[in-house]
Design goal:
By secondary structure, this protein is α+β, with helices and mostly antiparallel strands. The protein is built from three helices and five strands.
Length: about 130
């Protein structure tokens, strides 16, 4: 399932504190979000660094003026004990597919720690928290 949240959110008041959310596009394999903050993204960049450690990478960002584009790609989860390591160790029906992270869940985990400045963005975060 591919989804997009773009241009449906209210714009923050000029010079208001907190982050603005410009867009979210993607699917469980890869998702992109664009945030806006005239004061900088130090807290968001620190949260991204912490998520990279927990989720084995797959998270990158680019700054474009006062916007921050966050890209998250699904990554393979480490093997668990009891999972076959090669095809010859797998059961007769074939090797199980590798488990992967859900890029959308990782994005909303990151965005859940951010301080947004409009009510409708907070509604999107609450919806994601409830559904995911």
């Amino acid at each position: 399932m591919n989804f997009s949240i773009v241009k449906k959110l209210n714009k923050p008041a000029p010079k208001s504190a907190g982050l603005g959310l410009r867009s979210i596009n993607g699917d469980p394999e890869a998702v992109t979000a664009v945030l806006y903050d005239p004061e900088g993204f130090d807290a968001v960049k620190a949260a991204i660094a912490a998520l990279r450690l927990r989720h084995s990478g797959g998270i990158s960002y680019k700054t474009h003026g006062k916007s921050l584009e966050i890209n998250i790609a699904s990554t393979e989860l480490p093997e668990e004990a009891g999972c076959p390591r090669s095809l010859q160790d797998a059961p007769a029906y074939g090797a199980p597919s590798a488990r992967r992270t859900d890029a959308v869940r990782v994005l909303f985990e990151l965005l859940g720690s951010c301080a947004f400045n409009t009510e409708d963005v907070l509604d999107v975060m609450e919806f994601a928290r409830t559904c995911l």
